[in-house]
Write a structure and sequence with these properties.
The protein is an alpha+beta fold. It has a domain of about 150 residues: Super Roll (Bactericidal permeability-increasing protein, domain 2), CATH 3.15.20. About 25% of the residues lie in helices and about 45% in strands. A 6-stranded antiparallel sheet has the order 10-11-1-13-21-20. Strands 2, 3, 4, 5, 6 and 7 form a 6-stranded antiparallel sheet that branches. The chain has a 6-stranded antiparallel sheet with strand order 14-15-16-17-18-19. Bound molecules: 2-acetamido-2-deoxy-beta-D-glucopyranose (6 copies). One 2-acetamido-2-deoxy-beta-D-glucopyranose (NAG) binds next to loops.
Length: about 500
């Protein structure tokens, strides 16, 4: 009984905490393989410039020194990134071959027997391997983090050749000196691996913009609410994907629908964007009175004479003779406000529906304002989403608006007058505003060093799905992306200090 109670409490509290994200990124094994290729390449570049300090020692009757030790060949057989635990990956490399050469020098002395010699040597290490665990996490600011731990390595057969000298003297120190080289190499290798993860890779993931400004007063919150997870098919990253008012941080009081399942793993990445993201933007705009505005002869440009009460050709006064008669040579004003928060709905198509009241006034010759009537309007638009360089754009495809007149103080309003208001004043004013909003685009959280390759956009229930391959773009200069770091930069902290 108690157990049941605790259990249900657990499920309940978990349900409360686990808010669906507004944005989901799934990286498949194909996508992870790109990271592997980049990482393996960087590792090879770093190893090739690795410094191995000289080995000196004394053994019974011999003083030896191995110096100018250089890496001649580093061949990283098979490298892969695979799931290790729910929140970690394992980087494994096998069949690593390493050839090293250098100069030796020894002095042998026993009783009256003395030998000294110097020359070159080569050591070939084969079938070495390493494993390192990459722990995924998040930091205090909701950015992803990567940490490396548990660097394990093994080695296989070793062959060495010393040119010149006496074999029986080499036998006295060679094994020990070579073991010293191997230990140093493996320690340095672990240092490089750790730096590749905790410096290079960390720098890339820290570079993800988790708060992106949207217009002048809003921002998109792309912080990670949870640690990225690794399943058999995907490395999955959830981002909050909600729009906030820039200086208040209050979240919209509802949550995203859960994302439709995705089982496809042919592309490198699958990105799902919930309609919740767009609805939180509308919520903030609505709540902060951004959806209230006036249409007057001063702000609708070349169509302003449409608002005249007197004209010879085409204006509102022609269609509502009452106002032409009572208020000649004046102009009409429309005060618009949303009466309900507009809603974006994604379901095969993207549509936006809105409701509002439009109060119609006349601005008289003495500049005073006189109320005329109110129009309640319900409108809907279809928007075609489009993706271009990490921005999501909309194309206004079709709009409809229905109107009713209420609270008129000038009697009945002709149907044609309403049609005129809708077709010649409202739509021409609103459409460019909506298109403008769509044209400015909606920013997506992306990483500089990875670009979308042939992305495809699909519409699912409550979500836009982007299926894409990725391309790695190494950048140089001040950009903070994964790139080959000079070894001094890598070594400074970990190895030499
Ligand atoms: C050892 O490495 C050197 C330098 O790369 C190479 O020339 C030589 O053939 C290698 N020897 C063996 C036995 O692999
Ligand atoms: C619209 O006009 C009315 C009356 O002049 C004014 O009170 C209101 O603030 C205006 N609204 C906007 C959004 O400009
Ligand atoms: C509309 O009114 C303005 C100002 O009263 C006037 O200048 C303009 O010519 C009028 N437009 C038409 C088409 O009559
Ligand atoms: C309206 O304007 C016309 C042309 O400027 C003028 O003849 C007429 O007297 C004006 N009417 C009023 C009521 O001001
Ligand atoms: C919108 O207009 C309707 C009909 O006139 C009215 O009942 C309603 O209160 C108005 N809403 C607002 C928010 O003004
Ligand atoms: C207009 O009024 C009719 C009848 O009252 C109603 O069915 C319709 O929903 C209203 N439309 C709008 C846009 O308010």
């Amino acid at each position: 009984m108690w157990l049941l109670f605790i259990f249900s409490l657990f499920i309940f509290s978990k349900g409360l905490l686990a808010k669906n994200p507004g944005f989901r990124l799934q990286i498949t094994q194909n996508g992870i393989n790109i990271v592997n290729t980049v990482a393996a390449d960087l590792l090879s570049k770093n190893v090739n410039t690795m410094k191995i300090s000289k080995q000196t020692g004394r053994d019974i009757n011999v003083n030896y020194e191995l110096r100018d030790i250089k890496i001649k060949k580093f061949q990283l057989g098979k490298s892969s990134f695979t799931r290790y635990t729910e929140n970690s990956l394992r980087w494994t490399a096998e069949k690593i071959d390493l050839d090293i050469d250098g100069q030796y020098q020894y002095e042998y002395s026993r009783f009256f027997v003395k030998h000294s010699d110097k020359g070159s040597f080569t050591v070939n290490f084969s079938t070495m391997s390493f494993k390192i665990i990459i722990q995924l996490g998040t930091d205090g600011s909701g950015r992803p983090t990567v940490r490396a731990y548990q660097c394990l390595h093994t080695y296989g057969p070793i062959k060495y050749v010393f040119h010149g000298g006496k074999d029986w003297i080499f036998k006295l120190f060679a094994e020990k000196a070579i073991q010293g080289i191997r230990n140093q190499f493996q320690n340095n290798l672990c240092g490089i691996l750790k730096d590749l993860v905790e410096k290079n890779a960390q720098r890339i993931v820290s570079n993800v913009k988790v708060r992106i400004p949207l217009g002048n007063s809003m921002m998109v919150d792309y912080r990670l609410p949870s640690i990225p997870s690794v399943s058999t098919n995907y490395l999955e990253v959830h981002l909050k994907g909600t729009v906030l008012w820039r200086n208040s941080q209050n979240e919209a009081p509802y949550s995203a629908a859960s994302f439709p399942s995705n089982y496809d793993t042919t592309k490198m990445a699958y990105i799902a964007i919930s309609d919740y993201l767009f609805n939180t933007m509308i919520f903030q705009a609505y709540r902060h009175n951004m959806l209230v505005f006036n249409i007057t002869s001063t702000n609708i440009g070349c169509r302003k004479s449409m608002l005249n009460t007197t004209c010879s050709d085409k204006c509102i006064g022609k269609l509502i003779p009452q106002i032409a008669k009572s208020f000649p040579n004046s102009s009409v004003e429309l005060h618009m406000m949303s009466t309900k928060q507009p809603v974006t709905n994604i379901n095969g198509i993207v549509s936006v529906t809105a409701e509002g009241n439009i109060s119609v006034y006349v601005r008289k010759l003495d500049n005073s304002r006189q109320y005329l009537f109110r129009v309640s309007a319900v409108g809907g638009s279809k928007v075609n989403p489009r993706l271009n360089d990490r921005m999501l754009y909309g194309q206004l495809a079709r709009s409809e608006i229905q109107t009713n007149v209420t609270d008129s103080v000038i009697g009945a309003i002709d149907e044609k007058a309403l049609q005129f208001l809708a077709d010649d004043i409202l739509m021409p004013t609103l459409a460019p505003m909506v298109s403008g909003l769509c044209k400015r685009g909606f920013p997506l959280p992306t990483i500089d060093s990875f670009q979308f390759l042939q992305p495809e956009l699909k519409l699912r229930k409550n979500a836009i799905l982007i299926e894409t391959n990725l391309k790695y773009i190494p950048r140089r200069g001040k950009s903070t992306v994964l790139r080959f770091l000079p070894k001094e930069e890598i070594y400074q902290e970990n190895i030499y200090s």
